[in-house]
Amino acid sequence: MRKYPLYIDGKFLETPNSQIIINPSNQEAIASVSIAEEKEIELAASSAREAFDRGEWRTLSFSKRKEFILKISQGILEKAQELATLESLNVGKPIKETTFMDIPSAAQTFDYFANNFEDFLKEEIIDIKTQIASCSAKIIRQPQGVVVLIVPFNYPLLIASWKMAQALAAGNSVILKPSILTPLSVLELAKIIDSSGLPKGVVNILVGGGEKIGQLLCSDKRVDMISFTGSNSVGRKILNYTSQNIKKTIMELGGKSASIVLADCDLELAVNGSLCSIFLNCGQMCTAMSRIFVDEKIYKDFVEDFVNKTKKIKLGNPLDFQTQMGPLISKEQHNKVLDFIEKAKKEGITLACGGKTPSDPQLQNGFFVEPTVFLDVPKEAQIFKEEIFGPVVCINKFSNLEEAITLVNNSDFALAASIWTDNKELAEKLAQKINAGIIWINTYGMFFDQLPYGGFKQSGFGKELGKVGFLEYTITKNIMVDNSFEAKPLINYWYGF
Length: 497
What we know:
Elements: E1 2-4, E2 6-8, E3 11-13, E4 18-22, E5 29-34, H1 38-54, H2 62-78, H3 80-91, H4 95-120, E6 124-129, E7 134-143, E8 146-150, H5 156-169, E9 173-177, H6 184-196, E10 203-205, H7 210-218, E11 225-229, H8 232-242, E12 248-252, E13 258-261, H9 267-279, E14 291-295, H10 299-311, H11 331-346, E15 350-353, E16 372-375, H12 382-385, E17 392-398, H13 401-409, E18 413-414, E19 416-420, H14 424-433, E20 438-441, E21 456-457, E22 460-461, H15 466-471, E23 474-482
Parallel strand pairs: 1-5, 8-9, 8-11, 9-10, 11-12, 13-14, 13-19, 14-17, 16-17, 19-20
Antiparallel strand pairs: 2-3, 4-5, 6-7, 7-23, 12-22, 15-16, 18-21
Helix pairs in contact: 2-4, 2-6, 3-4, 4-5, 7-8, 9-10
């Protein structure tokens, strides 16, 4: 069994305490990971602070910084097969997903920001002339400082890469905390970073209990920024910790995303895309379209096709390329999802398919739940309102577009939405009315490094990716030079002395 140390101040550090990491598809142990306690947390904080304040990273030439970040991108590609296998073992997602989506996307993110951050950081000159003043202002962007990156269990390497690529490209030093459930690919990333020759202390990686690490780091004066992706309950705690020493925060929290399927859509495209939108990664996605609203004119046909195809989804060993859906991440999550399902059944909500653990003997040791479809779900129902984070979808009908928009917006969350129609002009008008930070038309889940990602309301605030997301990891300075006649601005002689 592999043993993984922490990575602090450019060194791999084993600790007295460790935790066994299991494969959620069969509960077999796959690795042992060192656990950070207060001593290691303190060491990481002081290391990151020292690296930013007195190290060379933020003062390196842009070309040198780019070179380091590109080495990380290349290192991920060189270990792509190993990382894909490890991600599937640790997270339980099918190898097809990790091979063709997660790992190459992580490498591409480092590559994109390496090749674009210099342009994003260009100074802006603004000349201002009024009746009483004249000046030239230079708007510059500089790194935030020490940035704590907190990553969830569902896309450990990819989301770590999103955050780290932006933070490093902007010139920050980093403390990265992966989920204690899925730290393995991130700890492999530590080896890639170390091999790149990145200056010590610029990246520090801690694994441990979220409560302890979160409280200590998020309230620490030495930390300038927190970028968090995870649950709303943990997000609230982090905001409370950061209030003790005010700092910049990005909160990418939960979702209860929705799709609108119009009568004029390509039905096959809408059904297949909707299947992907809820059952990819076993529904463990903030952007999962767990509510699907279908025009009553095609509701029967949509449901029939959707349910038939749902029943054919192949559950199985994540390392089998034929597997289409793996297990949930843990016993706790497994029980939580089944509790949602059982409550919906007791409320009399129509169950079209799924709703239980699979009967296949080969799956009994894993945290598997059948892909589950409920129909005509009351908007007051728990499964309609709350984020389940599992393979459970509600399909309802609507009679007009006003009703559809009302149903979609009837949520505390505002992260993502999809619209399926042949009328793109109408789709864009509907998108203006939907409360969501990301809206896909005739597709789902297209994430690009060039475009911002993030929501609002209870889905959080701040953006990742694109120029907008990158600039979250910087501070803005306004430097003004007076250009008044004979360099004698009125304000300097206001009192006439």
